[in-house]
Amino acid sequence: MIKANKDNFLKESGKALEEIYEMLQSLKSISLEELQKERTVLIMVDLINGFTREGALKSPRVERILPSAAKLQSACLLKGFPILAFADSHSMTSPEFASYPPHCLTGTSEEEIAEELQQVGGYQLIRKNSTNGFLEEAFSRWLKENDRIDTFLIVGDCTDICIQQFAETLKTWFNKENKESRIIVPMDLVETYELGMHNGNLVHVMALYNMTINGVEVVQSVEVQ
User: Fold this and answer.
1) What angle do CA 211, 118, 49 make, to 5 degrees?
2) Structural domain range at position 177
3) Is residue 21 part of a domain?
4) What are phi and psi of 182, to 5 degrees?
5) Burial 19-49 (b: 16+ CB within 10 A, else e)
6) 195-216, pLDDT tens digit by residue?
7) pLDDT confidence bin for 7, thresholds 50/70/90
8) Has residue 82 been placed in a domain?
9) Residues 93-126: pLDDT tens digits?
10) C or N: which end of the chain has fewer Cβ atoms within 10 Å?
11) pTM of the predicted protein model
12) Cβ(192)–Cβ(204) below 8 Å
């Protein structure tokens, strides 16, 4: 239970949100050119039909970032960066459906990568059966086999769920291993959905804030030539 007077809570929270908003607005962009080919990977999270164009969790907010995500994907491909694409893929018995409506069922078009990204290509597909792609065995193998990679450029959705969980878990894993890392999340290339109490703008901002205070490098954008 919230141990605070409602009016005081809303007043204090409003002030904090204003400070968080202004802090995020003050963050800088980075250039793709500053990232080293042998140390950098692009991670595209759940930019699939089931979160963009069809199904119970489709969102026009997420769909809007597809063209810019494809542009960054093309630039990374030209620079020779490896690219991983996570895609939700569930059976009807998934325990996750106790928290979310059924979505991205295995064998349906919902689990497929969005057409814009398919056209660019050049990615390794990793299907995932939870919100946190870090837990997938295929990613663990990739991480072990590519131990020179320490810079992760993460785009996709949802900011407050799959993006935040993956980025923070990845950062804390590197911390546990006593290894320096850059876990980069560009604000203009992550999004979340709007549904009932799940206010898209609010949870998006709070997720970005939580990532910044946990060592994730949140930036305005990644500039490409």
Assistant:
1) 65
2) 33-223
3) no
4) -120, 115
5) ebeeebeebeebebeebeeeebbbbbbbbbb
6) 889 999 999 999 999 999 999 9
7) confident
8) yes
9) 889 888 887 888 889 999 999 999 999 999 999 9
10) N
11) 0.95
12) yes
